[in-house]
């Protein structure tokens, strides 16, 4: 039979971030998740970990999250039961770590080290794979993937705090202009807002003259 050949399926890439209302990823002196995680949100995190994502992360996030996961698995007292279960579960999820400083073998289970250019590696993974990918922290990696046009979904969970004095890690610094089409939203525990968008990277403001 004739017809147009089917396109080769591509794996999707999602940037997935938690953020304060004023655009920070964390704040000095505040607990994780700004102390506002609740049972609905934590249950959703567990469900997301089971959705066959491959997580993409950089060296700093790897060191932080693998340490927290190990501590939670050892019964560390700094986590609630729900937090501990969520962190421990990350060990079973496939992870790709982009770093020129980490050494193999990586100790966090199911972690693959990639030393080359992260953008080109993810571009190849999109073309050759069929498993969806999602970032885990790693703000500079998120920015680079978005600027390269590789991001299919841009998802935020907005925490209702303003940390203008103590906020750390401004998320949007260095971003290009991006148009966002809202495709999904949800409220967790009556206070956290999930917002999921299709992003389109812009050359500049819409309607601006080009020379």
From TrEMBL:
<dbReference type="InterPro" id="IPR024072">
    <property type="entry name" value="DHFR-like_dom_sf"/>
</dbReference>
<feature type="domain" description="Bacterial bifunctional deaminase-reductase C-terminal">
    <location>
        <begin position="12"/>
        <end position="193"/>
    </location>
</feature>
<dbReference type="InterPro" id="IPR002734">
    <property type="entry name" value="RibDG_C"/>
</dbReference>
<dbReference type="InterPro" id="IPR050765">
    <property type="entry name" value="Riboflavin_Biosynth_HTPR"/>
</dbReference>
<dbReference type="GO" id="GO:0008703">
    <property type="term" value="F:5-amino-6-(5-phosphoribosylamino)uracil reductase activity"/>
</dbReference>
<protein>
    <submittedName>
        <fullName>Dihydrofolate reductase</fullName>
    </submittedName>
</protein>
<dbReference type="GO" id="GO:0009231">
    <property type="term" value="P:riboflavin biosynthetic process"/>
</dbReference>
<dbReference type="Pfam" id="PF01872">
    <property type="entry name" value="RibD_C"/>
</dbReference>
